[in-house]
Amino acid sequence: MEVRLTGSDGEQSVHVEPGTTVRDVLHAAGILASMVIVSHENVVLPHSTPLNSDVTLLVTTISSGG
């Protein structure tokens, strides 16, 4: 299946097997999971969420500091 990742850093697609978690998709795309939140249709998804069909996810980089 195809997972499309969109966000301020651009857009990319990753092909994975059904049941792959959000965390594994991020890893396959070379995105550090601890630095982003992922959402679908305005709902934030836990990184442990399994994906079972083609989908487009919004990847938002989080930042912190003083």
Structure report:
The chain has 66 residues and is mainly beta. It has a single domain (2-61), classed as Ubiquitin-like (UB roll), CATH 3.10.20.30. It contains 1 helix and 7 strands; from the N terminus they run βββαββββ. The strands form 2 sheets. A 5-stranded mixed beta sheet has the order 2-1-7-4-5, with helices on one face. A two-stranded antiparallel ribbon has the order 3-6. The mean pLDDT is 95.
Strand order across the biggest sheet?
A: 2-1-7-4-5
Structure class: mainly beta
- CATH architectural designation: Roll
Tell the overall outline: globular
Per CATH, the superfamily is Beta-grasp domain
Q: Radius of gyration, Cα only, in angstroms?
A: 11 Å
Please report the distance between the alpha carbons of the first and last residues. 41 Å
Number of separate helices: 1
Please report which band the strand proportion falls in: under 5%, 5-15%, 15-25%, 25-35%, 35-45% or over 45%: over 45%
Estimated helix fraction = 10-25%
The tally of structural domains comes to: 1
> CATH topology, what is it called?
Ubiquitin-like (UB roll)
Mean pLDDT: 95
Largest sheet: 5 strands, mixed
**Which spans of ≥5 residues are poorly predicted at pLDDT below 50?**
none
Order of helices and strands: EEEHEEEE
**Which CATH first-tier class would you pick?**
Alpha Beta
Number of strands: 7
